[in-house]
Amino acid sequence: MAEKRTVIQIFWAALSNGYLAGFRHGRLYDGALKSFCMPGLNCYSCPGALGACPLGSLQSSLATKSGVVYVVGWLFLFGALMGRLVCGWLCPFGLVQEALHKIPLGRKWKRLPGDRILVWLKYVLLALFVILLPLFAVDAFGLGTTWFCKYVCPQGTLEAGVPLALVDSALRSSLGFLYRWKVTILIVVIVFSVFVYRPFCRYVCPLGAVYGFFNKVSLYRFEVDETRCVHCDACRKACPMDLSVWKDPNQMLCIRCGKCKSACPTGAITSGWISRPVRKKNPQRLHVSNS
Amino acid sequence: MRRAVGYALAALSVFLLIVGVSLGGMDVVWLKASRICLECVGLG
């Protein structure tokens, strides 16, 4: 399962950034595909990007007060179909963090101290930097800016800032404080990723926060067969996000990597696009309630 | 019940996409995504 997921992650990251000529010339792809949003966090200013970042598009559309319905439609589509399956399987920045976490260096952590408070940070960033500030902090022409992209997003720095600065000397000469600030954030995320599993996804990513809202209702979902579950918590030990899957198989933090399914000794955890009815522990009681 | 909500949201998303396309959303996204975003790069 893990190998299959890694292959799909690499394939999708390569496909999302398949305009190789862009890396050589420092030019962006400007074909028709750029009208479509990609599911994961993939900066549209990456020279190789073939599609648009849904989070950047959302901020941009809110800042200009145009195209909001279209971008929200994409977010709802990806969310309703997959939830955070996108994070676990299709997000290029998730792949980067996982690769960094594989570096055999120091002790590996699933959570940071203060985790209970820190997990709320992504919702604050979503409300403030992705929605409210682009919408209401406007200039004389009534236009806002993409606050999360501008001040926080390390994926933009990794995929767009660094490659473009390397090949474009004019751009390189104009870089200043903001660039250094964003590179600092990227370095912090890289360092943390070596020791903590996907710290950006767990604590910072507003796109993951959006998809997390859909986890409980998305068409792809996890289920626990209560007649087979022995509550051994093996799923939690295997879960890189440190979740007790048997208590709630579709928690907002779950990125649906599927490691719990492989770890479950009784095979009680299943996942799929069309959910099967879960057998309850007391079928007689279920029968009474149905009659 | 949750599956029904999932289907309803998927249907709503298709509706939003159709409305969004008719309102010119594709052009708005293309315009932003096909040029270098100075904010993303760190120049904004």
Which radius of gyration of chain B do the C-alpha atoms yield?
Answer: 16 Å
Question: Uncertain segments of chain B of ≥5 residues (pLDDT<50)?
Answer: none
Order of helices and strands of chain A: HHHHHHHHHHHHHHEHHEH
**Biggest chain-to-chain interface with counts:** A-B, 65 and 37 residues
Quaternary organisation: heterodimer
Strand residue content of chain A: under 5%
Distance between the termini of chain A: 41 Å
Task: Kindly state the percentage of residues in helix of chain B.
Answer: over 70%
Low-confidence stretches of chain A at least 5 residues in length (pLDDT < 50)? 282-291
Number of strands of chain A: 2
Shape of chain B: elongated
Biggest sheet of chain B: strands, sense, closure? none
Principal-axes geometry of chain A comes out as globular
User: How large, in whole angstroms, is the Cα Rg of chain A?
Assistant: 21 Å
What's the number of extended β-strand segments of chain B? 0
Strands of the widest sheet of chain A, in order across it, are 1-2
Q: In a nutshell, what does this entry contain?
A:
Chain A has 291 residues and is an all-alpha fold.
Polypeptide structure, described:
The complex is a heterodimer of chains A (291) and B (44). Chain A is mainly α. Chain A has 17 helices and two strands. Chain A has helices at residues 2-16, 20-25, 54-64, 68-82, 85-89, 92-101, 115-118, 121-136, 147-151, 154-167, 169-173, 177-195, 199-204, 206-214, 234-238, 259-263, 283-290, and strands at 221-224, 269-272. In chain A, helix 4 (68-82) packs across helix 14 and helix 6 crosses helix 12. The longest helix of chain A is centred in the middle third of the chain and has 19 residues, at 177-195. Chain B has 44 residues and is mostly helical. In chain B, 77% of the residues lie in helices and 0% in strands. The N and C termini of chain B lie far apart (46 Å). At the A-B interface, helix 3, helix 4, helix 10 and helix 12 of A face helix 1, helix 2 and helix 3 of B.
